[in-house]
Amino acid sequence: MTVMFEQPSLISAAPIPRFRFITISNGSNANTTAIDADFEAAVANTGEPIIGITTGASQDAPQDSANSFAAKEAGVSFEWISPGAIGLLHIDKSAGVTRGDRLMANTNAVTNLSGQAGSGVTATSGQWVGALALENAAAGEIARVLVLSPFYYEEG
């Protein structure tokens, strides 16, 4: 039996920085200007299931900043990495991560789209996990991660 896999094209509900966690937009997510379309994604915030990570492809030039955008405005298609693949993730400036850490979207995503929105932090109990750190990374660095199917993490 052959299992078919399709990674759909997604469109942005609002600007989405590179190397960030994303979620499916439900029209009321933080960081969105809801256009209410199928396959619409937004920057993931703490408490939202993570579906993937934006790639390093950018609509900005030059592409040397972690804060340049994968999608510069709402309604545009962008490249993303789905569960099961290895990708790069911006680590939140509040703390580094250790190889093997489960990662979730940061809590301050609502306040700063061009800064820490959708950045990875070590997961705490009662949160959605979207990746596993494959290497140690200091706060504010880009780290190699394994993108996971989202799961709700409970300690114990």
In brief, what are we looking at here?
Helices cover 0% and strands 35% of the residues. With 156 residues, it is mostly beta strands.
3D structure, described in words:
The chain has 156 residues and is an all-beta fold. The protein has one domain. Helix content is 0%, strand content 35%. The chain contains no helices and 13 strands. It has strands at residues 10-12, 16-17, 21-24, 40-43, 52-54, 69-71, 77-78, 80-81, 86-90, 102-105, 120-122, 127-133, 142-153. It is globular and about 40 Å long.
What brief labels describe this structure?
single chain; 156 residues; mainly beta; five-stranded antiparallel beta sheet; 13 strands
| Overall 3D form | globular
| C-alpha end-to-end distance | 38 Å
The poorly predicted ranges are none
Q: H/E element string?
A: EEEEEEEEEEEEE
Question: Beta fraction of the residues?
Answer: 25-35%
User: Domains counted in the coordinates: how many?
Assistant: 1
Q: What's the helix count?
A: 0
Radius of gyration: 14 Å
Chain-averaged pLDDT: 83
Helix coverage percent: under 10%
Please identify the structural class as seen in this structure. Answer: mainly beta
Strand order of the largest sheet: 7-1-4-3-5-8
> Biggest sheet: strands, sense, closure?
6 strands, mixed
Number of strands: 13
Helix and strand topology:
Blueprint: E1 10-12, E2 16-17, E3 21-24, E4 40-43, E5 52-54, E6 69-71, E7 77-78, E8 80-81, E9 86-90, E10 102-105, E11 120-122, E12 127-133, E13 142-153
Parallel strand pairs: 1-4
Antiparallel strand pairs: 1-7, 2-6, 3-4, 3-5, 5-8, 9-13, 10-11, 10-12, 12-13
